[in-house]
Amino acid sequence: MKCEIGSIIEFAGIDWRVLDIQGNKALLISEKVLEKRPYNYKYKDITWENCTLRGYLNGEFYNKLGEAKGAIAETRNVNPDNPWHGTTGGDATVDKIFLLSLDELVKYFGDSGALAQKEGKDIKYYCYEDEVKEISKPDSNKWCWFEDRYNAARVAYDESGEASYWRLRSPGLDGVRPALWLNL
What we know:
five-stranded antiparallel β-sheet, three-stranded antiparallel β-sheet, 4 helices, 14 strands
């Protein structure tokens, strides 16, 4: 299997984008949002370590990969706090399948400084409270997001071709776009 950063490869019947190569392993993320699932079935404060989505990805989803799952490397994930929402990331975990963190999102998809600074030139902030409103700075008590020059790189589509939000393991918000380290 030929892997190059930025290329799309097929693995276990799924198209994956190669985000990074380190030694004999490649970091992959599904090219599409594969399904819609909640971060946790019960609405409560919870971290990646204990959420039901982590259990699903490392259980049922992982098992669906059949014989191919033997090529997936176990990964120790540090789970940083979410600076936008002030939520704790929780303890480090060991996973086969995981979601990217906010830090990994900006590393692999671009960083305008909006995540760390919560403000910046040419960045538009939006908040949802009964309707979408443009705001000057994000509010950690509301569902907020930003748009910047890296939006096109971060956009993901579901199976029907519709643009979709996708979840990170840093507690926050939507579609499931799994990631894994593949042994080459």
